Structure formats: structure tokens, C-alpha cells
Amino acid sequence: MNNHQGRKVFVLGGARSGKSALALARASALPGKKAYIATAQAFDDEMEVRRERHRLERLVDWDTFEEPLDLPGLLVKIRDSHDVILIDCLTLWLSNLMLADRDILKETESFISALTSVRGSLFAVSNEVGFGIVSENEMARKFRDLAGTLNQRAAAVADQVYLVAAGIPIKIKEI
């Protein structure tokens, strides 16, 4: 798996597709100091159970950072101290920004700038939400559109992009 060293890998998929497991397995196989950035916030008991399950899936050699909003700032802070960084996930980060009424386009630009400044290996996980029906809900449509833009920007700067469906990774970009 060392073919990912020093690369930006973007992993997309639907809910429960296996995208996080793929990113974690590939990132775990790399040498060096590892950072796991969790963007989820626990607003209810079910989400706290999910967060705890993800914590248990990681091995002890991972430093865990929980950052729901300032993902760009955290990336800049840890980019020189960690050889492998895994972000899980961008769409949860996006929903946190929306709930905090942040400027999404400005935050996206800041994230892309921070992402490209990372010299080690970086894995970013995100949901592909554009395959579903168009919602009647305005906020859901806005989220879908913003997620599509964020995913396009992240994929554009990635060296590799995988789409995961039913636990099967499909490589859709390789530089």
C-alpha cells in the first residue's frame, strides 16, 4: 500500500458503502505518525454510538483529533507533525458549517488551500449525495449542491479518487 505515500487520496461513496473502512485500511498500511480527524458532532445518542464504534476501529497508533468546524486550521497545525492524515468526513464537516451559518465557499477555499499544503499522505472521505432524488426541502437541495462542489474541488486536487459501492472500491482517478 506504500503507493499512497505522499499522495492525496479522495474516497467517495454512499452511506455504509465501505468508504471509511477503505480509507482507514489504506492509511493504516503506511508508515509514520498518523492523525485521524473526525468531523462528526454527537447531537444524539445514536451518533455518539457511531463515533465510539469508529474510535474502536482505529488502532492505537493513531492520534485522534475531533474538529467539527476549523478543518483548514487543524490541517495547517498538524501537517508537519504527521506523516499520514485521514479526514472522516467532509460532508459531516459541511453540515456542521451550514448549521453554524458559515460562509461555505470561503471555508471550501480555505480547506483546499490547507489540503494542498500537506506534504505527507492525506486521505479524505466524503459522501456522494448527488445520485439520489432531488429533495423538496430547500436546505437539503442546498446541501446536495454544496457537497457536490466540495467533492469536485477535493477530487480536482487529489492524486487518486475512489468511488466505493457495496464495499468495492472503483478507482476513478489516478495521477
Structural summary, described in words:
It is a single chain. The protein has 175 residues and is of the alpha/beta class. It has one domain (2-174): 3-Layer(aba) Sandwich (Rossmann fold), CATH 3.40.50. Helix content is 43%, strand content 23%. It contains 6 helices and 7 strands. The protein has helices at residues 19-28, 45-57, 71-78, 90-99, 104-117, 138-157; strands spanning 8-13, 34-38, 62-66, 84-88, 121-127, 160-165, 168-174. A 7-stranded mixed beta sheet has the order 3-2-4-5-1-6-7, sandwiched between helices. α2 (45-57) links the parallel β2 and β3. α5 packs parallel to α6. 31% of the residues are buried. The model has no long low-confidence stretch (mean pLDDT 91).
